[in-house]
Specification:
- The protein is mainly α.
- It has one domain.
- It is built from 15 helices and no strands.
- It has helices at residues 2-29, 37-40, 42-62, 67-76, 88-112, 114-124, 139-156, 160-178, 185-191, 198-204, 209-212, 222-227, 251-255, 257-260, 270-275.
- Helix 4 packs parallel to helix 7 and helix 5 (88-112) packs across helix 6 (114-124).
- The chain is globular and about 55 Å long.
- It starts with a helix and ends with a helix.
């Protein structure tokens, strides 16, 4: 079992690495938008890259020591109540669907609960969106997500293999929908009926609160339609990215951001937001 899990982890790491390189190259050949003036010059771009990759490096170093063992422990101690039909490939498909709706609600909670937003805001402070944005998360958020996921695994009995496959899909899809890749409009419109695309997620990173608090989906796009959080706004290459009223910060400041971040302003109601 351990050997099989190590093999799965190896395949996951290799696939994600190749995916990052693929989209890093593709978005340079077919960019959907140009970075703002502060990031357009070489020094600004390098500083931004350093922030995003620096946060990723922290997660790469700490996740195998904390996050993976917590997840593995939870899967090994999960409540074994599953019926016989909830096994194999049908069971895996159902697990992915359930995990995706749960991560929708977790993402939404990260926006609506001030304590969680202190950590998640680090991701949104990025002033541009590209492949590296998918790697930019505060380790506190990664740890809190792992603890929440462990509780869900214990209650619903998700096997470790299902969690590992789902996490790989999350990484692959996050790299895709954070990328600054210009897709043919008709193709993206068709694709967006099922999964989250770059245009959908671009609006989620718009520096306007009513849009930031929308489009929470990770894999499938229908959860936002079902729960009334899909923004009607279309991507505009010139729309500002980031957090309204908040500046970007150096990496050391980002690491302690949850300790000094002021409380977010009250979110506008969806009715008021739709009028703006």
């Amino acid at each position: 079992m351990i050997a099989e899990l190590e093999a799965l982890l190896g395949w996951k790491t290799a696939a994600v690495g190749l995916w990052i390189l693929l989209f890093f190259a593709a978005e340079r050949l077919l960019p959907a938008a140009r970075p703002p003036a502060a990031l357009a010059d070489r020094p600004g771009g390098i500083r931004r890259l350093g922030r995003n990759l620096g946060l990723w490096a922290v997660n790469l170093g700490l996740s195998p020591l904390i996050v993976l063992p917590v997840t593995f422990w939870a899967a090994g101690h999960a409540w074994g109540w599953r019926p016989e039909w909830w096994q194999g490939l049908p069971g895996l498909a159902l697990d992915i669907l359930l995990l995706d709706v749960l991560i929708y609600w977790w993402h939404r909670a990260n926006h609506e609960i001030p304590f969680l937003w202190r950590f998640h805001e680090v991701h949104h402070l990025d002033r541009f969106l590209d492949t590296t944005s998918a790697l930019r998360f505060h380790f506190g958020e990664v740890l809190l997500s792992a603890l929440a996921r462990a509780g869900i695994i214990l209650l619903l009995g998700f096997p470790f293999t299902s969690v590992l496959v789902f996490e790989a899909l999350v990484l692959l899809c996050a790299i895709f929908h954070h990328s600054n890749l210009r897709l043919p409009a008709a193709f993206e419109a068709l694709l967006s009926r099922l999964i989250i695309t770059p245009s959908i997620h671009w609006v989620h990173h718009h520096a306007k609160r009513c849009d930031t608090d929308s489009n929470y989906g990770t894999l499938f796009s229908f959860w936002d339609r079902l729960f009334g959080t899909r923004s009607a706004k279309q991507r505009d290459p010139d729309m500002p990215i980031g957090v309204e009223g908040r500046p970007e910060e150096p990496i050391l400041s980002l690491l302690i951001h949850p300790l000094h971040s002021p409380a977010p302003p009250a979110a506008p109601s969806r009715q008021d937001a739709s009028k703006s």
